[in-house]
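Long-time lurker, first post. I've been practising inverse folding by hand and with some scripts of my own, and I keep getting stuck on stretches where the structure tokens seem ambiguous. Below is the full token string for one chain I'm working on. Before anyone asks, I'm not after the true native sequence, just a reasonable design that respects the backbone. If someone could post their per-position residues I'd love to compare against what I wrote down in my notebook.
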């Protein structure tokens, strides 16, 4: 696999979970004397690569590459400015009678964000918020264009700027690199940002694309799977060194339910003794959750020392905000709650909540009521700084990606296979969103080295014979909008 990167010689590598893709990339880097560029969307992977790759490799996230080229250090203060629907409404002096300025500002904000994530050269209809009424479309598009021109046209101003914005501007200006490289090592390409994928198409040097299709889990961020788009000689890494054959068997049975199962199964490492559903776990447990709400519930229900991958800032902020509102004070410093003047206003909004944070809050209040603040305070006292130091760790499936833990238990908030099929049949979930749910389960079951405790959803997937897509795909499988597939 390790070889000299020659001009006009791209390569595509499908690397299963734990199959040593980092070692393979390192070997490629060591085989090349000239400068190489390693790119990933994960700062954690970039940090690990920088510490192990030879000195001829520049290891960067895609955003940090664009940050350098666009000389963002000179205007870094703009990235710290708030960019909310209210800010957008003020910048554009929005005044309307048919909709609030805040709502219009939110639609314009979302449109600009979608444009920044996409590979298109201009703001267009496809960037409009899903479900937006046609009567507002023209005004939202013109407002988004005005906002974009304002933000990028006054570069030395104090106007707000988001990281995806300078990435998009880098793309629009030709996506030039910081130096002359012999090749690019593109890691985790199964979750490519469309704007980044298009930026890579500008490059005239060979690119090694590395990824694992069943680990594509960021569709809700408009990520796309580059492995299905790139045409290049293809190689496979299927031997996992993370877990033993029993875990590999579970992973293969789970991913067999995908409408696009991988062409080759993952193979477990025989030297590792992995156990499924141990009666008495011998290793510290990491609880892997489907949703942020599930993660918070598991964290609050745990005992002993605890590590929450990604932190508990959101939970603490929400709990403190609820406490302030219940005591008659507005929660002005909690973005999700700042619009409510009273506790009753908040509870009324929660009853018909579409905002993910409010849906989480609804479940927390149902479970803990006025004891929520006390429960969160107790949790804070048990927190430790690492998985290794904790008796229990809790993580979402999205944040678990790339991690290896001794033992894992799957939380009960994953959706069962029968329910997923029903959602696709009824049009409440697209086939792409269904595939993301299967992939999330695959990611979850491939985290542990020694012990894996299944939940009901995983048990159903393992016990059920895969159906052909035609058995659950509706006749008109158009765009479903109810379930976005994100970590709600």
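-- Answer (accepted) --
I ran through it position by position. Result:
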């Amino acid at each position: 696999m390790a070889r000299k990167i020659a001009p006009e010689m791209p390569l595509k590598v499908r690397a299963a979970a734990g199959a040593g893709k980092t070692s393979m990339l390192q070997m490629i880097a060591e085989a090349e004397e000239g400068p190489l560029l390693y790119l990933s969307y994960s700062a954690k992977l970039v940090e690990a690569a920088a510490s192990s790759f030879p000195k001829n490799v520049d290891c960067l996230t895609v955003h940090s590459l664009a940050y350098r080229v666009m000389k963002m250090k000179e205007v870094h203060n703009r990235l710290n400015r708030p960019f909310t629907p209210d800010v957008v409404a003020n910048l554009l002096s929005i005044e309307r009678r048919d909709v609030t300025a805040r709502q219009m500002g939110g639609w314009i904000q979302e449109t600009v964000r979608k444009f920044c994530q996409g590979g298109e050269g201009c703001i267009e209809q496809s960037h409009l918020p899903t479900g937006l009424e046609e009567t507002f479309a023209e005004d939202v598009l013109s407002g988004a264009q005005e906002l974009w021109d304002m933000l990028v046209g006054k570069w030395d101003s104090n106007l707000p700027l988001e990281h995806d914005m300078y990435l998009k501007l880098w793309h629009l200006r030709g996506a030039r690199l910081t130096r002359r490289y012999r090749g690019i090592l593109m890691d985790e390409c199964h979750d490519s940002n469309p704007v980044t994928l298009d930026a890579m198409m500008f490059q005239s040097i060979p690119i090694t694309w590395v990824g694992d299709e069943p680990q594509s889990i960021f569709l809700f961020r408009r990520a796309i799977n580059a492995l299905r788009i790139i045409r290049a000689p293809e190689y496979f890494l299927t031997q996992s060194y993370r877990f033993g054959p029993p875990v590999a068997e579970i992973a293969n049975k789970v991913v067999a339910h995908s409408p696009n199962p991988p062409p080759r199964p993952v193979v477990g490492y025989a030297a590792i003794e992995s156990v499924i559903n141990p009666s008495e776990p011998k290793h510290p447990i990491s609880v892997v959750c489907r949703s942020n709400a599930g993660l918070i519930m598991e964290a609050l229900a745990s005992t002993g020392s605890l590590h929450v991958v990604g932190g508990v800032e959101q939970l603490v902020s929400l709990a403190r905000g609820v406490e302030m509102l219940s005591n008659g004070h507005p929660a002005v410093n909690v973005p999700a709650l700042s619009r409510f003047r009273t506790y009753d206003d908040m509870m009324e909004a929660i009853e018909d909540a579409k905002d993910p944070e409010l849906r989480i809050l609804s479940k927390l209040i149902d479970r803990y009521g006025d004891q929520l603040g006390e429960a969160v305070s107790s949790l804070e006292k048990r927190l430790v700084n690492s998985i290794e130091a904790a008796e229990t760790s809790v993580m979402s499936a999205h944040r678990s990606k790339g991690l290896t833990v001794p033992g894992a238990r799957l939380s009960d908030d994953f959706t069962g296979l029968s329910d997923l099929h029903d959602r696709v049949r009824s049009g409440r979930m697209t086939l792409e969103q269904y595939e993301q749910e299967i992939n999330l389960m695959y990611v979850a079951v491939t985290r542990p080295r020694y012990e894996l405790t299944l939940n009901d959803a995983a048990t159903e997937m393992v016990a059920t014979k895969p159906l052909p897509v035609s058995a659950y795909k509706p006749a008109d499988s158009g765009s479903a909008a109810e379930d976005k597939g994100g970590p709600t």
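A couple of notes from the structure itself: The chain has 18 helices and twelve strands. Residues 290 and 414 are 5 Å apart (CA to CA). Happy to go over any region you disagree with.
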